Each structure stands twice: as structure tokens, then as C-alpha cells.
Amino acid sequence: MTAMIDVADARKTFTMHLQGGIELPVVRGVTFHVYPGECVVLSGPSGAGKSSILKMIFGNYRCDSGRIGIRHRGALVDLAAAEPRQILNIRRSTIGYVSQFLRAVPRVATIDVVAEPLIVNGMARADAQARAGELLHRLNIPERLWQLPPATFSGGEQQRVNIARGFISDLPILLLDEPTASLDAANRAVVVELVAEKKRQGVAMVAIVHDDEIRHLIADRIVDVASFAAAA
Amino acid sequence: MVDQGSANLDTLENDQPLLVAQSLSKSFGRIAACRDVSFALYPGEVLAIVGESGSGKSTLLQMLSGQLAPSGGHVSYRMRDGVTRDLTTLGEAERRFLFRTDWGFVHQDPAQGLRMAVSAGANVGERLMAVGWNHYGRIRETASDWLTRVEIDVARIDDAPRTYSGGMRQRLQIARNLVTEPRLVFMDEPTGGLDVSVQARLLDLVRSLVAELHLAVIIVTHDLAVARLLSHRVMVMKGGRVIETGLTDQVLDDPREPYTQLLVSSILPP
Amino acid sequence: MNAPAYNFAYLDEQTKRMIRRAILKAIAIPGYQVPFASREMPMPYGWGTGGVQVTAAILGPRDVLKVIDQGSDDTTNAISIRKFFAKTAGVATTTATGEATVIQTRHRIPETALNENQLLVYQVPIPEPLRFLEPRETETRRMHALAEYGLMHVKLYEDIARFGHIATAYAYPVKVNARYVMDPSPTPKFDNPKMDNCPALQLFGAGREKRIYAIPPYTEVVSLDFEDHPFEPYRFNAPCALCGAEDSYLDEIVTDDQGGRMFVCSDTDYCEGRQAAGHHGSLSAAPYREKAGSHG
After folding, report:
1. Cβ contact (<8 Å) for B122 and C150?
2. Which of A223, B115, B269, C75 is disulfide-compatible with C69, CB 3.0–4.6 A?
3. Comparing C-alpha atoms, which of B179, B139, B155, B147 is closest to residue C153?
């Protein structure tokens, strides 16, 4: 079986020019891979660079050296060296990302926020909205809120909208940054279910989860980020 | 080892750049306003040029849109017939035709881009009449459609833009530009003079139109929030040079250059 | 010659030569506005200084001059200009359209068809048809150069949007020889069709604006319009009260303060000619009334 994600010797250092140019090493020697249908959970103390690694895989953070191999449309692409256009292509059709916070355009209705990734990939609006509705239902967002922009929602509600938006598409790679952080037990269980479904569909996932119980429920393998800690 | 070849879904058409800038420079006397700028813009791609005033971004925009002759370098554009032309080889008639058809230009001050004393309908219809539309009913119908698309009440079609609010004027300017279905639109601080609440509505509108019409956009702004919301790619300018460029969220979330870090750190948190 | 103090037709020969060069250029480029060094004339701007200079430059001793103002030979303006040339050039003058070789006009084209031996000189106040929409002269010149005339239709569009039809009734824009858009001076649009394929040479002089333009004989002149709002010459729907003509352009004359009015030919020579030939208007004695019987 070929890996969907193949990270090799990736390294990240922040140079803080506004603080006199101090170097802030984040991670080095990051090496792991993720196969289809498996969920790899990154573990380690906070500040160890878990989020940074996730962002490097998404192309949101640059990589100083090493390789972020992503299987995109049957070929392995090094995201660390890809052109912006190519990264956008990869995000559109290969990598999904569920961030901790929802970043949505002010006036767009919740149902459209969730349906957008499908519409962008060419699904008819009505079909996309139907699927968005199903997911919102499962995540216990009452139907009367669907036409409102999510900006007015509570933190937990926003997070669930965010999860719906992240899980709606059929992308082969999914990155999860604390998807259950502000959820109650019932909704956490829904997320665990959703992850299990994605695994059955062969989706490769990388997640950051602080909750031991959830981690136990979704992780197929655990990668300890502490081993990549960059020596200061 | 790493195969980048077959990993592209885009069609052949989209694989060719629409506009290419090569080593563009502009000097005014001894002042170099713009130095050695190169990039390629693809169909449907939104590029933000950010930087503070005096960074050369407006000079660059003028050169890219053929309104200012570069001191050095070239801008080439792939015309509707598929032929790529160097802008300096275009005659004035061709250049102006391009501006009325395949290009749009949205000014910061709508009074510069609109005819303030002429009705909204005629403002939108002008480009159509300029390319030979000669049927009043059809021109008016198309103008009405566009007013609706930019969320202007069709009942206001016969009012002159000077009776419009700032946000409406800006939306009208956008309709006036998009009516000939251009492939490339230049925007110079389009939200510059607007209230924050009006800005959000305009940005949302621009964002959806850009996606719907598969527009390529070059937008000059000093507002990083505008760049984040609208653009795929960003170019940071300082002292006439492009000092950093890349995917918008990458440049804004992981800025590399000291100046970019300063810009990013200067934004108030949302 | 009765006025030795003046050069023939008032202007000196150098000036006339300069104006003739401008006229020749204008004829060579139909509808194009040629700049010329307009002179001060012994009359105020607005009285036809442009037309007078063109007439002075083309007039020969054997020409017969007719001058009309709104179609009339006998207004102050028409009489003054006629006398001016009678005095400074000693040319014969006439009021009969058929006899004239040069006709200077303000705001009308005679009803009697012109022939190849005639020349029509228009007095023009504002030569630039695009001005009211685009005030920058540099820009309008570029628009003419590049034949960018979308803006002209914007004006017609505005008319229809506001009034339901093209309400421009005079100075109605035309396209000359399929190239330049031209302001036919403030003639009523009723006269526009007469400019098309006209056997006589038509010259336009704008004194204050220092522009001369021309329509050579037998040149295509098309009034701008929309497919669904075609050009229509406008005319009051009444016969002339004096001569009964139903095809001439009419002036409306208010006869009292009770709403009484009558319509008469604006072309006085045409009207008189018809009357002399025995035509009479049915309403010549009784003025037309807005509501017949309301004053019984």
C-alpha cells in the first residue's frame, strides 16, 4: 500500500525579525507517513509543534527543508516545493483541514458555508446543500440556524459548523486540529463516528487531540512529536 | 522521485498564464518606483499586491494595465483569440478596446470609474454600446440583470450614481466593469473609502462574483484582511521591490521577511 | 464696388486662404472637425461668426447669397449678415432658395431641394457632439480618432430612459460617411434626412470654438438610433396655416393668451412660393385653437 502522506526530515524554524531576529526552532527531522484509512494522532506537550506540523502538511506554514510528500491524483507531490497554484489545487481536491476556529465570510449562510467545498468541486448547489443539511443535523445544529451566518453562533456551534464543513467533502486526506475541543459528550461521539466513517472510506487522517479518551477511540497510530523537538 | 507532472486537474486553457510580467521596472527621474517585478497570473487567479503607500504598488498596477509605459521589462497578455501579445506593441485603439471588453478597472474613488451625471442603467450599458449593442431593450435588460447581481434595487436604474451611497456606487462600478464579461479585472483599493460594514458586504460580493465568473483579479490593497479574504496569492512590496510572494495564507500566517512580519503584526486581531 | 475701405468680403486674402485650407481638409475628411484660426468679426459671438468666416472665404463676385435664420430670410440676424456681404463683397443677394449659389443658415435647411451648384454654410455654436457627456477635449478628440462612439448612444439611451423615446429634437447626432460622428448644429432633426446624399456641399463653421467641418456632396449621413427605437424626424401634426403645406417644418406661433396658436412654415421663402402658386392654408384666417368651441 502506498502512503497518502509521506513526510521526510521536515524542519521548521521561525525567525522573529521584530524581536531582534531571534531564531525559534520548532521541529526538525519530522518523518512519518500515513496510509489510506488510517488516523495518525500527533502527541506531545503543548508547544511541541503539533499544530505547526499539521500546518506544514496543509501548506499553510513553509518548510525550511525536508519533504512533505502528498499523494495527489495518483502522483506524489512535494508540497514543500510546490507552486501556490498547485497547493490550491491540492487543497481543492486532496487535503481537507478542520481548524480549531471557523474562519467564514461575514454574510454567508451556515448551510452555504458548509456546502461550499462541494460546490467548488462542481456539485450542484441543491445536492451540496442537502448533504450539508444532513451533516448539520447529525452535529445537532438546529435547522432554524442554517440560514444565518455562523458568526453569531456560540463557540461550540461554530466549531460544529467547522467540522461539518471539514467532513463534508470526499477528500482523501483530512487534517484535524482539535476537532472536539469545545464539544459536549454527545457531539464528541458524533465526531468519533464521522472519523470512523472516513476511515472506512479510506481517508488518511492526521489529528491533534488532547482528550485521552477521544484519542484512544480514533487513533490507529500515535506519533510522538517530542522526538522531533528542535534543539534550541 | 517526486512526480509533479500528471498531478494537475486544470485544463490546458487554464495552464497558460493570462498575464505575464517580466522584470518590470519604472523610474521617475532618479527615483525607482518599481524594480524588477516578475510574475505570471493564471485565469481565475486572484493576486493581491500589498504594501504601504509609496511602495510602488500603484505604479505597478498602472504598468500592468498598460496605462504607464515601463522603463524596463514587459507585460504580455493572452488575448481572447489565444494570441499572447506584448502590451507595448498594442496600438492605442487595441488597448482601449481591451479595456472596454476583456479587462475591467475598479477605482478606489467610484467617481473616477463612473459617469456621475448619467443614469445607472447607462453607466452599465455604456460598454455594451461601445462594442456595438444597438438594441435599447436588450441593453436595459442586461443592465437590470447586472444591477440585481450587485444587489442594487432595479427601481434605481434611472437614477444617477451621484444619488447613490458610497457602497452602492462601488457596486455599480463593479457592474459597469463586469457587463462585458472580462477575464481580468484590476482593482485599486476597492474598499478604501468605505465604512467597515459596507466593506464586508462589498468584499463578499466581489468574492462570489470572482468565483462565479472565474475572473482573474489583480488587486492593490494596503488592507491585509482584504488580501486574505479575496486573494489566492499575495505579493508584498516595499521600496518598489517585491520582497515576499506566495500563497496568501502562507505569507500572512508564516511571514518570512522582516517587513512582512511587521505588516502582519500590525493588524488588530479579528 | 462700393466699399473700397474693405477687402473683398471683409477678410484679408491671407485669412481667407487659411480658412480655405481648413475647408479643403474638412471636405477631404467628411465630418471631422478641423481647427482654424478664427478671427474677430464685427459682430458678437453667437451671431454666426463661424458661418460668416466660411462664407467670406468661399464667396466670389458672381455668387448670389441667401441668408436664413430659423428658416426665415427676414430676421435681424439674417438681414444683418446679408447686408454685411452686400456691402463688403458687393454680391447679389436673394431670398429665393432656387436662385442662391451660397446659402448661410442658422438652424434650418431649406425645404426646396438643393442642387450641385449650391453651397450650404451652417453657423455652429458647439461643434463637439460628445461634449455634454465627456467634457475633456483631449478625450473627445481621442474618441473621434479611434471611432469610439459608445458614449453617443449613452445620450440617446438616457433620452429613452427618461422620456420613453429619443427626445433629442435638434442637434441630433449623425454619422458621416460611416466614420465620424458629427453635430449637425442646432437644426431640428426634421432636417437630418436632407443632409444625407445631398447634392450641395455643406460646410459648418464654429467661430468661438474655432472649428470647421464639412459634408461633401452625395455623402452618406445617418442619424444615430437604436434598432428598437429608430430615428424619426419630428414635425407638428398640422398643415401650414398660410400655405397648407403638409411636408414642411412648422413654427408654432402663439396668437393670444387664450391658448390660440397657429402653425406656419419655418421656411419663409418656401411658404411664400407656395402661396404665390395659389396654395392656401385652410386655417389662414382663423388661428388653430387648442380646444375648439371652448370659447364659444
Report:
1. no
2. C75
3. B139
Q: Give the domain extent around A218.
A: 34-62+82-222
Of C146, C158, C228, the CB nearest to B118: C158
Q: How many residues does this entry show for chain A?
A: 232
Q: What are the C-alpha distances in Å from B105 to residues B69, B186, B190?
A: 17, 5, 10
- Are A73 and B9 an interchain contact pair (Cβ–Cβ within 8 Å)? yes
Beta strands C102-106; C64-69: pairing state: parallel
Mean pLDDT across B73-82: 94
In a domain, A18, yes or no: no
What is the distance in angstroms between the Cα of B104 and the nearest Cα belonging to chain C?
17
Q: Which residues of chain A have pLDDT under 70?
A: 1, 104-105, 231-232
Q: Would you call B121 and C148 a contact, using CB atoms and an 8 Å cutoff?
A: no
What average pLDDT does this structure show over B2-18? Answer: 52
What is the number of domains present in chain C?
2
Same domain, C257 and C133: no
Looking at C192, C223, C254, the residue that finishes a domain is: C223
- Top CATH class, B44-76+183-270: alpha beta
Residue of chain A nearest B203, judged by CA positions: A105
Cβ distance of B125 and C229 shorter than 8 Å: no
Arithmetic mean of pLDDT over chain B: 90
In this structure, the answer to whether residues C217 and C245 fall within a common structural domain is no
Question: Which of B198, B247, B253, B261 to mutate to test binding with chain A, by most A CBs within 10 Å of its CB?
Answer: B247
Residue A72 lies in a domain: no
In this complex, the chains that touch A, judged by 3 or more CB pairs closer than 8 A, are: B
Does a structural domain hold residue A141?
yes
DSSP string spanning C70-139? Answer: TTBSSSHHHHHHHHHHHHHT--EE-S-GGG-SEEEEES---SSPP-TT-EEEEE-S---TTTTT---HHH
Whether chain C has a CB inside 8 Å of the CB on B139: the answer is yes
Active site residues of C: 31, 240, 243, 265, 271
The residue among C200, C223, C246 that closes a domain is C223
Query: Are C193 and C126 in a shared domain?
Result: yes
Report CB contact under 8 Å: B7, A106: no
Q: Backbone phi, then psi, for B246, in 5-degree steps?
A: 160, -170
- CA separation for the pair C280, C241 (Å, rounded): 8
State whether C206 and C109 are in the same domain: yes
Instruction: Tell me: do C81 and C151 sit in the same domain.
Output: yes
- What is the CATH classification number for the domain harbouring C23? 3.40.50.11310
pLDDT tens profile C94-150: 999 999 999 999 999 999 999 999 999 999 999 999 998 888 999 999 999 999 999
Query: Domain with A202 in it: what CATH number?
Result: 3.40.50.300
Q: Where in the sequence is the domain holding C83, given as residue range(s)? A: 13-223
Q: What is the pLDDT along chain C (296 residues), one digit of tens a residue?
A: 555 677 999 999 999 999 999 999 999 999 999 999 999 999 888 889 999 999 999 999 999 999 999 999 999 999 999 999 999 999 999 999 999 999 999 999 999 999 999 999 999 999 999 998 888 999 999 999 999 999 999 999 999 999 999 989 999 999 999 999 999 989 999 999 999 999 999 999 999 999 999 999 999 999 999 999 999 988 888 899 999 999 999 999 888 888 888 899 999 999 999 999 999 887 644 455 544 444 43
| Same domain assignment for residues C42 and C149 | yes
User: Beta strand C180-182 with C201-206: parallel, antiparallel or unpaired?
Assistant: unpaired
Domain boundaries, chain B: 44-76+183-270, 114-179
Question: Given an 8 Å threshold on Cβ–Cβ distance, is C157 in contact with B125?
Answer: yes
| Residues of chain B contacting A, Cβ within 8 Å | 2-10, 42, 45, 200-201, 203-204, 207, 211, 229, 232-233, 246-247, 249-250, 253-254, 256-258, 261-262, 265
